[in-house]
Amino acid sequence: xxxxxxxxxxxxxxxxxxxxxxxxxxxxxxxxxxxxxxxxxxxxxxxxxxxxxxxxxxxxxxxxxxxxxxxxxxxxxxxxxxxxxxxxxxxxxxxxxxxxxxxxxxxxxxxxxxxxxxxxxxxxxxxxxxxxxxxxxxxxxxxxxxxxxxxxxxxxxxxxxxxxxxxxxxxxxxxxxxxxxxxxxxxxxxxxxxxxxxxxxxxxxxxxxxxxxxxxxxxxxxxxxxxxxxxxxxxxxxxxxxxxxxxxxxxxxxxxxxxxxxxxxxxxxxxx
Length: 272
Description:
By secondary structure, the chain is α+β, with helices and mostly antiparallel strands. The protein has two domains: 66-184, Band 7 domain (Tetrahydropterin Synthase, Chain A); 186-258. The protein has five helices and ten strands. Strand 2 (29-35) and strand 3 (41-46) form a beta hairpin. The termini are far apart.
């Protein structure tokens, strides 16, 4: 029989083993139980809290909203690939399906740099990229950025349809699709910039022509006004000259001054 001291040692060892062979499932995660004896996956998820790991391995997977960064090169309506196209897909797994997903979709998961397991992350990313290609091809390059919300909604709808067709929609929820960075094809962008520059140059030229026309009209008005004034000045000067000449002629007895009514155009006979 074990002594009292021996029983205490065994009890302490058992308690120590029990305390060490356990783990805690945090909020936002569920645990997947894998038997240490035969490797079988239990269909029951382990919810938040402490659980023993003496007879099983526990794999924690996130049930939060998971963000996938998607980079794609979709071809636009003009038949040219976008220079840059980046999107984010916000999705989450159905917690009760976690063991089934983990066991049956082994090559479709992603593991982050922090060690988090994104169940079906690889698969959702592939299908999202395919949905982007399907949707964007219907849009001209220069309309993609202007119709972000419309395109986001169509990508989400197309992605859900693809997952439904493949029988995967029971595993995941697609929450949101956001377009992050978009750049049209370089050749189209350059062409548009050239067109804009040409239009601006044309407008500038039209403005210059209009300015020149207005300047010409102004000068013509000024010239017309100046000519009229100049003629009046010449007439006035001629009248002064005539008056001075008449005064001198009268002084010499060579000129007989007379008054003639204004506007008179008849003949006058003058005798000395």
